[in-house]
Specification:
Length: about 375
C-alpha cells in the first residue's frame, strides 16, 4: 500500500487489475490506470493503489476473496475507485460494501462487448455488470459515447455517469517510411481487435506495395494468435504481416515513427487510445467506425476528418479504403494535413486526471450515512 500526493484530506483507494504494471500485458485499460494513478496527486489526491491478481472479470475464488478482504478492511465512508474489469463481474463482492463505502467504477469496456463470448456468458456478465453499477455511487466512462451507452444499457441516471476521456502525450511528428506503404496496427491480439478481417482486407490489396506490423500482446489468447499466423500463411501474407508482440517505450515510439498509416479494425472500442497516440505524431488513421472511435479520431480545426472511417459491417469497405490510401497521393496528402491539424487539438493526461478528480471530489462532498 503506497500513499502519494500533497492533500492528506483527499484519499482515494484505487483498485486495479493485478497485471496493471506488467510490461508483457499492455492494454489501454492498464495504461489508463497507470496514468491516472500517477496524475491524481497533482490534482490534489493521495492515491492508495491496490493491484489485485486474478482472472478478471471471472476470477477464481481466491482472487474474489482477496478483493473482498481488501474492501472489508477499509473504514466506513472511504472513497474507492475500482477498475471495471475487476469490479463489474463480482457484484456479490461490491454491492455489500457499496452500502458503507463511497464507490466509483471506471468502465473501459462493457464486459459483454468482448468479442467471441458465448451468448450465455455475455448475458451473465451483462447482468453482473448492471448489478455492480447500480450498487455504486458513480460510474466513469472513457468517452461520451460510452457514457450514453452505459446509461441506456443499464438504466442508470445520466447524472451518475461521468466522462474522463484518455489523454495523450505530446510526441514528435513521425517521419514515416515512404509516406504510404508502412502500415501499423497497435492492439492486443484478441478477436475483438479485428486482426482477422484486417488480414482479409490486406489480402485484397496484395497487388499493391505495403507491409504491416501488428504490435500488441499475444499472451491473452495464444490459440487465436496461432490461428492468425496460419491465416497469414494461407493468404500468402506471412512475409508482409508481422505479429511482433508487445512493445513499449522507445521500441513502441520507433514503431510509430516508421508508420505511414495506423490501421485499426476493431469490432468494439469505447474510445481507441492508439488512435490519438498516432494522431499525436501526425499519422493518419484508417479504422472501423465503431462505438467511440469516431470521437477519438475527431476533426481538425478546418472540420476535416484525419482518417478514413469505414462501416464495421462492410468487409469490402476496409479493403477499399486501403486501396484509396495506397493508390491515391491526393488522399494521402489530404489526410496528413488533417492529422497534423488534429494533433494540435489533443488533450493530455492531466486533463483526464482533473476530470476524474472532479468526480471524486463530488463523491467526497456528498452527504454520507453508512449502512
Amino acid at each position: 500500500m503506497t500513499d502519494t500526493g500533497p492533500e492528506p484530506g483527499r484519499v482515494v483507494h484505487f483498485v486495479l487489475p493485478g497485471d496493471v504494471d506488467d510490461p508483457a500485458a499492455p492494454s489501454g485499460g492498464n495504461t489508463y490506470g497507470r496514468r491516472v494513478r500517477q496524475g491524481l496527486p497533482a490534482a490534489g489526491w493521495r492515491v492508495r493503489p491496490y493491484a489485485v491478481p486474478g482472472r478478471w472479470p471471472r476470477p477464481e475464488p481466491a482472487a474474489r476473496g482477496e478483493l473482498a478482504r481488501r474492501l472489508a478492511a477499509l473504514p466506513d465512508g472511504a472513497l474507492v475507485l475500482l477498475d471495471g474489469l475487476v469490479a463489474c463481474g463480482v457484484p456479490e463482492v461490491i454491492a455489500p460494501e457499496a452500502a458503507r463505502l463511497r464507490m466509483a467504477v471506471l468502465v473501459h469496456l462493457p464486459l459483454a462487448d468482448e468479442t467471441g463470448l458465448a451468448p450465455d456468458v455475455a448475458g451473465e456478465l451483462d447482468a453482473r455488470e448492471c448489478r455492480t453499477l447500480h450498487a455504486v455511487r458513480a460510474v466513469v466512462a472513457t468517452s461520451r459515447w460510452a457514457a450514453r451507452q452505459l446509461a441506456a444499457r443499464h438504466g442508470l441516471a445520466a447524472d451518475r455517469v461521468h466522462v474522463a476521456a484518455p489523454g495523450v502525450d505530446p510526441a514528435p511528428l513521425a517521419p514515416g517510411t515512404d509516406g504510404a506503404t508502412r502500415l501499423l496496427c497497435v492492439a492486443a491480439v484478441t478477436p475483438r481487435k479485428g486482426h482477422g478481417r484486417l488480414m482479409d482486407a490486406l489480402a485484397d490489396v496484395a497487388d499493391l506495395s505495403w507491409s504491416c506490423d501488428c504490435v500488441g500482446g499475444v499472451r491473452t489468447d495464444p490459440g487465436f494468435v496461432g490461428q492468425l499466423r496460419s491465416k497469414a500463411a494461407e493468404l500468402g501474407l506471412a512475409d508482409r504481416v508481422r505479429l511482433v508482440g508487445p512493445r513499449a517505450g522507445a521500441e513502441l515510439a520507433a514503431s510509430y515513427a516508421a508508420a505511414d498509416l495506423l490501421v485499426l479494425a476493431s469490432y468494439a472500442e469505447t474510445y481507441g487510445m492508439v488512435v490519438t497516440e498516432a494522431l499525436a505524431r501526425g499519422i493518419p488513421v484508417l479504422a472501423t467506425a465503431v462505438d467511440g472511435v469516431p470521437e477519438a479520431v475527431g476533426r481538425a480545426p478546418d472540420g476535416s476528418v484525419p482518417g478514413l472511417l469505414v462501416p464495421s459491417g462492410d468487409p469490402a469497405a476496409l479493403a477499399g479504403a486501403l486501396r484509396d490510401w495506397l493508390g491515391d497521393p491526393a488522399v494521402r496528402r489530404r489526410l496528413k494535413i488533417s492529422a497534423r491539424g488534429r494533433r494540435a487539438m489533443l488533450e493530455g493526461w492531466e486533463t483526464t486526471s482533473h476530470s476524474l478528480a472532479g468526480v471524486l471530489e463530488r463523491l467526497r462532498r456528498e452527504p454520507w450515512t453508512a449502512g
